[in-house]
Specification:
The protein has 15 helices and 5 strands. With 327 residues, the protein is mostly helical. The longest helix is centred in the N-terminal third of the chain and has 16 residues. The chain binds zinc ion. This is HNH nuclease domain-containing protein.
Length: 327
């Protein structure tokens, strides 16, 4: 007899029926039967309204390609034009048409730190990061076809003076200034949900969503408040009560899983976490000037005693404000 719990766990992980069957020494027909009989569940994207690729305006294929690229770049630097296949041209054209350039795409997504993780190799063999590479909005990926050095915009003597800037893949990392998350935090958030959407369990068109919405007026740019959602789900969730939204949009188990993960990150039991979110909902707009994290405010207001989660001690906001004032 097949271990249903294990099988469900694998399916939740995003494994195909065939793979689950193989892992459990069963046949994929057996898994299909259990799914059809309601003993196992497969989460599909819903409410996505994503047009098939053949229709214009689909983000599906191109944005998944970018997602893969970012996933790789989060592990180690990548050289964009060493991935030249058909996708390279299709996606490059999409990025140019939709966003102007990959540099503006990353900035729009608050992922500027990837500018230092993605490199281009020029025909002259020099490597430059996107941060240093010039834009050319008419070209593929919105990028100049030759390096700053070949364009004559960086002189040979500059290259000689700054060899580390051009050749060293392990150059200093950009610090968190305007970006929503650092690269490490981005990695954490994404891997927490296996690089998939927290709700639909697909890897398509992933965006980052604030669980407690920004519009509620709390300080909520911290990675423990961020979950990956598909573009469609993210806009459906918008500024709604996140738990209510989950309840009416997905299964009890998926809701439970997300609540379990987020309550753990907040040092709360699941019940406490739900009260915390309800409290935030009831106090929308009441603490816009409070520099504290909502969990600290809630703890004080309800007089509960529990150790504050570790993110409370790792506050970047002052640093960011100072840098912005300085600049
Ligand atoms: Zn060059």
């Amino acid at each position: 007899m097949i271990d249903l719990e294990k099988a469900q766990e694998y399916l939740d992980f995003g494994y195909s029926k065939t793979k689950v069957a193989a892992l459990l020494g069963s046949h994929h027909n057996t898994i299909s039967r259990l799914v059809n009989g309601g003993k196992l569940e497969i989460y599909e994207a819903f409410d996505e309204n994503v047009e098939p690729r053949s229709k214009l305006g689909s983000c599906f294929y191109e944005e998944n390609h970018i997602d893969d690229l970012l996933r790789q770049a989060a592990e180690s630097p990548v050289i964009l034009n060493e991935r030249k296949d058909n996708d390279y041209y299709d996606v490059g054209a999409y990025i140019r048409n939709e966003f102007g350039s990959i540099k503006s795409f990353l900035c729009i997504q608050d992922l500027e730190y990837f500018l230092d993780e993605i490199f281009i190799k020029c025909g002259c063999d020099k490597l430059f990061s996107l941060a240093d590479w010039y834009e050319d909005k008419g070209k593929l990926w919105g990028l100049s076809s030759v390096c700053p050095s070949c364009r004559g915009e960086i002189s040979y003597s500059y290259v000689k003076r700054n060899p580390e800037k051009i050749f060293n893949l392990n150059q200093t990392r950009r610090t968190k200034v305007d970006a929503l998350l650092t690269k490490e935090e981005y990695k954490e958030v994404r891997s927490r949900f296996n690089w998939k959407c927290a709700v639909s369990n697909t890897g398509n068109c992933i965006t980052l969503d604030h669980f407690i919405p920004v519009s509620w007026g709390f300080k909520c740019h911290y990675s423990e408040n961020i979950i990956p959602l598909t573009k469609g789900l993210n806009s459906s969730k918008n500024n709604r009560h996140p738990v209510e939204w989950l309840k009416s949009n997905t299964s009890v188990r998926i809701t439970g899983r997300i609540i379990r993960i987020l309550s753990g990150l907040n040092n709360l039991t699941q019940g406490e976490f739900l009260s915390f979110i309800d409290w935030c909902f009831d106090n929308k707009g009441m603490f816009v000037d409070d520099p504290r994290f909502p969990i600290e405010i809630w703890r004080e207001y309800t007089g509960r005693e529990f150790p504050l989660p570790s993110y409370v001690g790792m506050d970047y906001s002052n640093e960011v404000t100072n840098e912005k004032q300085a600049g």
